[in-house]
């Protein structure tokens, strides 16, 4: 994922999450906020309670790859993807399908 498509700053995470517009699924929670620019941006958050740093970084890499594979993402939003505990219990393919379905249903 290119740098212009990432959300890294804590203030941007907070501004998106404070809008409280989100959708839940088994493995993910996606917060959204409308965006004036043309590119969709993504932030990925994995809580510490799910595992050590090695696991959290692996999960982030997998989610970035899932987002790269998913082609039908509305580009006029910023997204924060939160990983939930069920992520550990599912396979990569199940998680990718879950994320893809969740992103299709997310609308303001």
Question: What this model shows, in words?
Answer:
The chain is α+β, with helices and mostly antiparallel strands. Helices cover 37% and strands 20% of the residues. It contains 3 helices and 4 strands, in the order H-E-E-E-H-E-H. The chain has helices spanning 10-18, 53-69, 92-105, and strands spanning 22-24, 28-34, 41-45, 77-83. It has a 4-stranded mixed β-sheet with strand order 1-2-4-3, with helices on both faces. It starts with 9 loop residues before the first helix and ends with a helix. The model has no long low-confidence stretch (mean pLDDT 88).
- Please give the alpha-carbon distance between the first and last residues: 24 Å
The 3D shape can be described as globular
Q: What is the count of β-strands?
A: 4
H/E series? HEEEHEH
Task: Specify the helix fraction band.
Answer: 25-40%
The total count of helices amounts to: 3
Rounded average pLDDT: 88
Chain oligomer state: single chain
Structural class: alpha+beta
List keywords for this structure.
single chain, 108 residues, alpha+beta, 4-stranded mixed β-sheet, 3 helices, 37% helix, globular
